[in-house]
Structures are given as structure tokens and as C-alpha cells.
Amino acid sequence: MPLLEVRELEKQFGGLKAIAGLNFSVPEKIIFSVIGPNGAGKTTLFNLLTNVYRPSSGSILFQGKDITAMPSFRIAEIGITRTFQNLQVFLNMTALENVMVGCHLHSRAGLISAAVRLPSVIREEKRVRRMAMEALEFCGLLDVADMPADALPYGILKKLEIARALAARPRLLLMDEPAAGLNDTETMEMCGLITRICQSGITIILVEHNMSLVMEISHHVLVLNYGELLAQGSPYEVQHNQEVISAYLGEG
Ligand SMILES: Nc1ncnc2c1ncn2[C@@H]1O[C@H](COP(=O)(O)OP(=O)(O)OP(=O)(O)O)[C@@H](O)[C@H]1O
Ligand SMILES: [Mg+2]
Known about the structure:
Strand 4 and strand 5 (65-66) form a beta hairpin. The protein folds into two domains: 1-79 and 170-252, Rossmann fold (3-Layer(aba) Sandwich); 92-168, no CATH class. Helix content is 39%, strand content 23%. The longest helix is centred in the middle third of the chain and has 20 residues, at 119-138. It is of the alpha/beta class. Bound molecules: adenosine-5'-triphosphate and magnesium ion. Adenosine-5'-triphosphate binds next to strand 2 and helix 1.
């Protein structure tokens, strides 16, 4: 059974079909990249997968279960988390606090027991802190744990968002342009981080414009064009597909 299956998915914004009759499935534990020109529908696809947008039609199955109408917080709880094309970091919090926000998905404490600080709540806080520290460590961010986010450079904040998404212990991680705005060294580090996340057993759907990164680390590449599937296959197959070359990659 594939981890994720998308069937006849459509999203219409007024007269525009941002996603049109899309079908694909994602096997477990691979880096599955989605590429395509600006406006092809990549971010819209992520918004559909996380139910930020409700599809106009079609369905989404995760581990065989229909999640098309599931609220976003439940989707995160069952194991799909994401990062954003435009950084969504709380600048007035520390790096650690930002990541702890991701863990609270798994926090079981109710409001009243939290207010009176029962021992169980204190234990829970320690657990959340530990999970957040583990995610920071995985992303190489332990030494900035107590720094306020607004004092951290952009390249670190991109990793911080990933740490937050990982802290929720996802099975599927959606990454929307993790290398955008990074310099060459940071891009290489990001390549390594994405590969390590996959090696840890987490499936990744990667949206990225940096083609050398995509072709180097992906197991499978799907090309979107005007909301439709133009081609999919191995990086090699996609790079040598004539339609993809004319629509997107360009000659040479
Ligand atoms: N909320 C919205 N309302 C109306 N149109 C939208 C909305 N969100 C996206 N669109 C349109 O849907 C199309 C797909 O946009 P989307 O952001 O998914 O593209 P993308 O592939 O992520 O592009 P980029 O590579 O530039 O990030 C675009 O034409 C966009 O203008
Ligand atoms: Mg986008």
C-alpha cells in the first residue's frame, strides 16, 4: 500500500484550475519531488494535502484512509507535517519554543490540569522539551536553542522550521522550497539534512526550484504544469523527457 494516494484531485479558484485531475501515489520512505514552473500548483497541492484548502473534487488517502475532509490539526496528528514557502516562525520566541509548538500536537494535558500544574503536566512539559531538543539536535541547531528567533539568520530559520515539523514525529513531511534563498554552502547542508530525514524513515514530498538539488537527492520526480501532471519518473527519466524539456527544464 502506498503511504499517500491522490485520486482525481481538483482545486478551482474562480475560473482557474490550480490543480486539475491529478493522480499519483507516494511509496514509503522515499524523497518524492514535485517540480514545475511558478504557478504550476505545487503549494496549492500542499495546501490540499493538509486541508488548508478543501479540494473542489477528488480524494486523498493516507495509509489507505480517506483524509480528504479531515481537519488540518488531525492531519498533523496522524503524521503529515509541513514547512512553508514563506517562513512561518514565531520571531518573538526562542528556537526551542518554536520547536515545542510542533510537539504540542502530542501533548495530552487538558486546560484545567495545565492551569493547576499537576505533576502529570510537569512531566508532560519535560517530555515535550526533550522531543524538541532531539529535533533541534537532528537539525544541528542545539547551540541556538535558547536564542530568540529574530536574532537568527535566514538559513538557520529554514532549518528551524524543519525541526518544528520533525518534532511532531511525522510519517510524511511536506517541504515547500527548503533551499530557496540559501547560499551554496547552506544548500549543501540542506541536501544532507533532507537525505538524513529520509534515511530516518520519514517519507518526504519535496517542492523545490533548485534542479541540481532535486535531481541529486530525489528517488522520484513528478512534474506539474498548469495543475496537471506532465510527467513522472526517476530523475533521469524526467530530465530526458522531451515534453518536460520543452515546457520547463529547457534545452541543454
Ligand atoms: N488562494 C488563492 N486564490 C486564488 N488563486 C490562487 C490561490 N492560491 C493559489 N492560486 C493560484 O493558483 C495557481 C497555483 O499557485 P501555487 O501557489 O500553487 O503555485 P506554485 O507552483 O506553488 O508556484 P511557485 O513556484 O511560484 O511557488 C496560481 O495561478 C495562483 O495564482
Ligand atoms: Mg509555491
